[in-house]
Amino acid sequence: MAAAPLTATERASRVKLMIFDVDGVLTDGGLMFTAEGDTMKAFNSMDGHGAKLLRQAGIDTAIITGRKSGIVAVRAKELKITHLYQGIENKPEAFAELLKETGLTAEECGYMGDDWVDLAVMLKVGFAAAPANSHPEVIARAHWVSEARGGQGAVREVCDTLLRAQHKYDALLAAACGGGDQQGLVG
């Protein structure tokens, strides 16, 4: 008799590295251009805080994105996301490089994407997530889908989901409320 498939919570409990796409995930997918051709992006501060909470809890973060942007590099540095892959045409290749760099297995990774270019990596990781407004083919293949749209809290939702699945959410919340310490977060 075959084992029952893992639930999204069981999958989330195993994540040691959460990887994010940018456009449509960390942003709403809109692209604003200056007259000089520079791209501007808007990021959600709650999403950013979620990424910081993951780091506090010992869960590493990464970005793999098809576009190359100085704005994304600045945001990644601000959030202390050390694994940044920009201008990537072949996301599975970048994912394989990331696995080599970190020494993790695909099953220990999560990935949040919103469109077809993300599917090849999403199908390899242990925990595949998607914002609510993702392409229907992505939603159909995700283990978990946020209620929020990309750039509007979807990343924070997935971060909270990982923290809860790994029993680290309550300690972080208690610390934020000024009580308790952060013992037991990393591990």
UniProtKB/TrEMBL annotation:
Keywords attached to this entry: Hydrolase, Magnesium, Metal-binding
Species of the source: Paraburkholderia gardini
InterPro entries named in the record: CMP-NeuNAc_synthase (IPR050793), HAD-like_sf (IPR036412), HAD_sf (IPR023214), KdsC_fam (IPR010023)
Membership in a protein family: Belongs to the KdsC family.
Superkingdom of the source species: Bacteria
EC number(s) per entry: 3.1.3.45
One Pfam family here: Hydrolase_3
Description of how the protein assembles with itself and partners: Homotetramer.
Keyword Magnesium: yes
Protein name: 3-deoxy-D-manno-octulosonate 8-phosphate phosphatase KdsC
GO molecular function: 3-deoxy-manno-octulosonate-8-phosphatase activity
Cofactors demanded by this protein: Mg(2+)
